Structure formats: structure tokens, C-alpha cells
TrEMBL record:
<dbReference type="InterPro" id="IPR029056">
    <property type="entry name" value="Ribokinase-like"/>
</dbReference>
<feature type="binding site">
    <location>
        <position position="237"/>
    </location>
    <ligand>
        <name>K(+)</name>
    </ligand>
</feature>
<dbReference type="InterPro" id="IPR011611">
    <property type="entry name" value="PfkB_dom"/>
</dbReference>
<feature type="binding site">
    <location>
        <position position="276"/>
    </location>
    <ligand>
        <name>K(+)</name>
    </ligand>
</feature>
<feature type="binding site">
    <location>
        <begin position="211"/>
        <end position="216"/>
    </location>
    <ligand>
        <name>ATP</name>
    </ligand>
</feature>
<feature type="binding site">
    <location>
        <begin position="242"/>
        <end position="243"/>
    </location>
    <ligand>
        <name>ATP</name>
    </ligand>
</feature>
<comment type="subunit">
    <text>Homodimer.</text>
</comment>
<keyword id="KW-0479">Metal-binding</keyword>
<feature type="binding site">
    <location>
        <position position="182"/>
    </location>
    <ligand>
        <name>ATP</name>
    </ligand>
</feature>
<keyword id="KW-0067">ATP-binding</keyword>
<keyword id="KW-0808">Transferase</keyword>
<dbReference type="InterPro" id="IPR002139">
    <property type="entry name" value="Ribo/fructo_kinase"/>
</dbReference>
<dbReference type="InterPro" id="IPR011877">
    <property type="entry name" value="Ribokinase"/>
</dbReference>
<keyword id="KW-0547">Nucleotide-binding</keyword>
<dbReference type="GO" id="GO:0004747">
    <property type="term" value="F:ribokinase activity"/>
</dbReference>
<feature type="binding site">
    <location>
        <position position="278"/>
    </location>
    <ligand>
        <name>K(+)</name>
    </ligand>
</feature>
<keyword id="KW-0119">Carbohydrate metabolism</keyword>
Length: 314
């Protein structure tokens, strides 16, 4: 098994983004302003982030329709240096996401999976030379479980970003080496929402990372807990912050770094991703991440992060 090779198996979409003063409430119509399209999808965003993190050859298994929406999605991945295994679907359109982005940098997203839903277990390419397999939940759960099982059997590290939130089958959890979730996703998997630390400890996965938005993240590696504060930035769009975190963390681990080092690099990259519009277009270059890491801008937030984690058990 060669270090530094990442395979991402997952979703690729074209994002339709409208900016508005606020996100509509149920039944409310909001007049938006600017409209743009951006390549997106959790899997594709994470693949771009892993490739731009540097030091890890990145490949992606994805499904696209035979349509115009596929063109910018494929072009963005190739431009980022991601090698592609495309399963072209003639009976399904390329996946799309409809995103309302508020002036406060919050978003509401609706996804039409399209071709992503046609991926199956046998689509996974050869794992020879792959160090880490990165998965999400925007493709069929049966396929994700089969891919994780095959990777575990091949001695490949399995990292699962369990998003969008759903209850996971035990057959999938048993194959995962590193689980990345937000607090809501953790609560669904652990079947408890009141105590973050307790939930973190009870998930039957060797390492679990929980992202906590603007305060940072907490991770359990075996029995050890690690806190990583967020890097403060002026956010304009948080759409791909979580995906950037996942891709950079996996690439850093694939280079042979520790989980602690990976968390810091991922936190820096995800912060920078919030300072630009779009999904893949906002993923920062390695040089920009390294420049942010040379400072100690994250250290000031440690007390707030510790208090946030402690308050969940109060």
C-alpha cells in the first residue's frame, strides 16, 4: 500500500446558486439577487480539496449524465488535478443542487441526485496503490457499504463523511476507520443528542471527528480527545466548508501526517473556503493554507471550543 494516494467515491453536481437577504421560511417567497452556477457535489468538492491540498494523488469515481450540466463539473475536477473514473449515464441527468445563500453566509440546499443515484457496488475501480478511500452519503447506501467493505478487505483506510445525516447500517460502520460528522449527524448515529462527549465515545469507530462550525472541531482517536479551534475569518459563503475540511484532512493523513496535524490543516482550509463564493471555486490552494498555518490565529479560540464541548454535557 503506497502512501499519498486518495480515491474519492461519491457525488458530483452542478450547483445553481441564488443570493438573497435571507433563506425563505416554509411558504415564503424571497426575491433573490445574483444567480450563478458552480460545480459541486460532496464527493467532487472533497476530491478537489484533496487534490489542492497537495502531496496526495487524487482520483474520483463519479457518475455524470450525457448532458450539458456534466461539462463544467468534469472540467473543474480535471483542472484541479483529479484523475477521473466516470460512469456515464444516458438514462439519468447529471445531479444538480439548488442553493439559496443568505447575506449572513448561511445556506439552504436541495439536491436532485440524478446520475449519482445510479452508482452501484461494482463501479468501484481497482484499489491497487490506494492509501485512503473517502466516502459520503449522496450515493446509494448499499454501494457505499460495498465500497467500504472492499476497501477494508484490501487494507485501505476508509474515511466516511456521514452526510447528509441518516442512520447508518452496522455493516457500514464496522468498515470505517475515520468518521467525520457534524453535531446533528453524530446525534443520529449515536442515538443521543444531549451529550457530545458521550456520543463521541460511544460510536464504534476507531477515530471520530465532529465539526462544530465557527468554533472548530473535536476528535476522538482511540481514547484520546483532541480539540482544534477554528481560524477566524470574515465568512461570505459556507457552502463547501465541510467538504473542504474532509478533503484536506484525508489528503494530509494520506501524506503520513498525524490526525492532530490533519485537523489543523483541515480547519485552516475550511476557514479559507468560507471567504469565497461557490463550492469547488472556494477551495483554497496549498500555499494559502500553509500561509495561514504559519500563524497562531486559531489558538485564541481554544477556550471557547473547550467551553462549547463541556456545555453539551452540562
Amino acid at each position: 500500500m503506497s502512501a499519498g494516494r486518495v480515491l474519492v467515491a461519491g457525488s458530483a453536481n452542478l450547483d445553481f446558486v441564488v443570493r438573497a437577504a435571507h433563506i425563505p421560511a416554509p411558504g415564503e417567497t424571497v426575491l433573490g439577487r445574483e444567480f450563478q452556477t458552480f460545480p459541486g457535489g460532496k464527493g467532487a468538492n472533497q476530491a478537489v480539496a484533496a487534490a489542492r491540498a497537495g502531496g496526495a494523488d487524487t482520483r474520483m469515481l463519479l457518475a455524470l449524465g450525457d448532458d450539458a450540466h456534466a461539462v463544467p463539473v468534469e472540467a473543474s475536477l480535471r483542472e484541479a488535478g483529479v484523475a477521473l473514473d466516470i460512469r456515464r449515464q444516458t438514462a439519468h441527468a447529471t445531479g444538480v443542487a439548488f442553493i439559496c445563500l443568505s447575506d449572513g453566509a448561511e445556506n439552504a440546499i436541495t439536491v436532485a441526485p440524478g446520475a449519482n443515484a445510479a452508482l452501484v457496488a461494482d463501479d468501484l475501480p481497482d484499489l491497487a496503490g490506494v492509501d485512503t478511500l473517502l466516502l459520503q452519503l449522496e450515493t446509494p447506501i448499499d454501494a457505499v457499504t460495498a465500497w467500504a467493505t472492499r476497501a477494508r478487505e484490501a487494507g485501505v483506510r476508509v474515511v466516511l463523511n456521514a452526510a447528509p445525516a441518516r442512520i447508518l447500517p452496522d455493516a457500514l460502520l464496522r468498515q470505517v476507520d475515520v468518521l467525520i460528522v457534524n453535531e446533528g449527524e453524530l446525534a443520529m448515529i449515536a442515538h443521543q443528542a444531549d451529550d457530545l462527549i458521550s456520543a463521541l465515545k460511544c460510536v464504534p469507530v476507531p477515530a471520530v471527528v465532529v465539526t462544530l462550525g465557527a468554533v472548530g472541531c473535536i476528535a476522538r482517536d482511540g481514547t484520546d480527545l483532541h480539540l482544534q479551534p477554528a481560524f477566524p475569518v470574515a465568512a461570505v459563503d459556507t457552502t463547501a466548508a465541510g467538504d473542504t475540511f474532509c478533503g484536506v484532512l484525508v489528503a494530509t493523513l494520506a501524506r503520513g501526517a498525524t490526525l492532530v496535524a490533519g485537523l489543523r490543516a483541515a480547519a485552516a482550509a475550511s476557514a479559507l473556503a468560507c471567504t469565497a463564493l461557490g463550492a469547488q471555486s472556494s477551495v483554497p490552494a496549498r500555499a494559502d493554507v500553509d500561509a495561514l498555518l504559519r500563524g497562531d490565529a486559531d489558538s485564541a479560540g481554544l477556550d471557547a471550543l473547550a467551553a462549547r464541548c463541556a456545555s453539551s454535557a452540562a
